[in-house]
Amino acid sequence: MRQLLILLGLACAVQVQAQDGTGVIKTNPWGWFAGQYQFGYEHFLSEKASVQVVPGAIFSTGTVSINDSIAGIFDSYGVTRAGFIVIPEFRYYLSDEAPDGVYIAAFGRYRTVTATVDDDAESTRRRQIMGGGFVLGYQHQLANGLTGEVFIGPQFKSVNTNFTGEYE
What we know:
This protein is an all-beta fold. The protein has 1 helix and 8 strands, in the order ββαββββββ. The two termini are 18 Å apart.
């Protein structure tokens, strides 16, 4: 299934400047609350251009509801989700100097997550998402190494979902 989404993001990243001034290490604490733990590195190619890669691990627990409309059965099951994500990106800063100011970026994204029913390890749902897009963003360095960032743009993606066990 192919999808086109408008990506709108607000990130509050913690950044650590590399000793030689060639890059920054990033993480987004907002993702931690959703079970997505990402840490990345933005490397400056010049005063205006940079490349960034943001890999991450996904882990969360929750519930999933399965509804059989024919039999009128509605059940809820505990699930554990686990997977990973990686986002490579090329940025070009329209402002004076990276990593501060307005930028345009092209990115790719690969994400895979397997949800397993806690009471039945044979019942799983695996979603693989591959895509990419473009964003217009603004990044601003705040005090004490914190950075605020907002971005918007189109994202094109393909989703592949496989079911086993009770999910089938």
